[in-house]
Specification:
The chain has 271 residues and is α/β, with parallel strands linked by helices. The chain has one domain: Rossmann fold, CATH 3.40.50.300. Helix content is 39%, strand content 20%. It is built from 13 helices and 10 strands. It has helices spanning 16-29, 46-49, 60-65, 70-73, 99-112, 126-132, 146-159, 164-167, 183-187, 194-201, 213-221, 225-228, 233-245; strands spanning 3-8, 34-38, 75-76, 83-86, 115-119, 137-142, 173-181, 205-210, 252-257, 263-268. The strands form 2 sheets. It has an 8-stranded mixed beta sheet, sandwiched between helices. Strand 3 and strand 4 form a beta hairpin.
Length: 271
């Protein structure tokens, strides 16, 4: 039975879709069966990140409305045979998502895969709430800026109130993934330090992904960064985060730029 993970944030543009693709590919590389599901109805970017935009015939809404079955809509990755995509619709609005339909799709996916990664739209509207509704685990994506952290705190509140696990008196397992971290800017006070973000949100740290041109290059190529440039620092950060998600004990190493311009390293908190 699959673990259902929602990749979410309160603020747009923080790297949810990039992170969903990278983590999904990393988990699949470890030999587990994975499906990534795009809940951002009307925009549909996850297929671009996966390099599958030309292969989308049926989507999540087609399955929910019964015009296609799940096997018709699932797209297998060309590089990893155990990685699949369920794309969002680009021509419908979020009202096409129904609670009954989402439950049916998630229930079917649970039986077929080890991991179901749901790429949530930003914010607190209907699509985001439905994306997190059946989650066992939530990965909250935050950039090291106060507006992103504040909005992430609101998402944590939703996870504790609006999910099925919350209604049953259980908690969604929550993890923090910090993206676009720049040690030089953090060292000069231009952005928040990792410890500051962790202290504000008070959830376990899954990993820190540095600002990197490799991520932009991978996105433009339509290849998850964990497949396009496995040796890059960003790919390694995502790969290690996927291992921690799978309960492997991997220390978090955060590069820091000290004010005396000497680089140092310290271990952060592992999830």
């Amino acid at each position: 039975m699959a673990k259902v993970v929602v990749v979410t944030s309160g603020k747009g543009g923080v790297g949810k879709t990039t992170s969903t693709a990278a983590l999904g590919a990393a988990l699949a590389q470890n030999g587990q069966s994975v499906v990534v599901v795009d809940f951002d109805i009307g925009l549909r970017n996850l297929d671009l990140m996966m390099g599958a935009e030309r292969r989308v015939i049926f989507d999540l809404i087609n399955v929910i409305q019964g015009s296609a079955n799940l096997s018709q809509a699932l797209i297998r990755d060309k590089r990893l045979e155990n990685l699949y995509l369920l794309a969002a619709s680009q021509t419908r609005d979020k009202n096409a998502l129904t609670e009954k339909g989402v439950l049916q799709v998630i229930s079917e996916l649970r039986k077929k895969f080890d991991w179901v990664l749901c790429d949530s739209p930003a914010g607190i509207e209907r699509g985001a709430v439905l994306a997190m509704k059946h989650a066992d685990i939530a990965i909250i994506i935050a950039n090291p800026e106060i507006s992103s952290v504040r909005d992430s705190d609101r998402i944590i509140g939703l996870l504790d109130a609006k999910t099925e696990r919350a209604k049953n008196g259980q908690e969604v397992e929550k993890h923090l993934l910090i993206t676009r971290f720049d040690s030089s800017r953090a060292g000069t006070g231009e952005m928040l330090e990792v410890d500051d973000i962790s202290d504000i949100l008070s959830i376990p740290l899954l990993g820190v992904v540095p600002e990197s041109k490799d991520i932009l290059s991978a996105s433009n190529l339509g290849i998850p960064v964990t497949l396009s440039n496995k040796n890059s620092t960003s790919a390694q950060a995502y790969s290690d985060a996927a291992k921690r998600l799978n309960k492997e004990d991997i220390p978090i190493i955060i590069p820091t730029k000290k004010r005396n311009f000497l680089a140092g390293w310290f271990s952060g908190r592992a999830a």
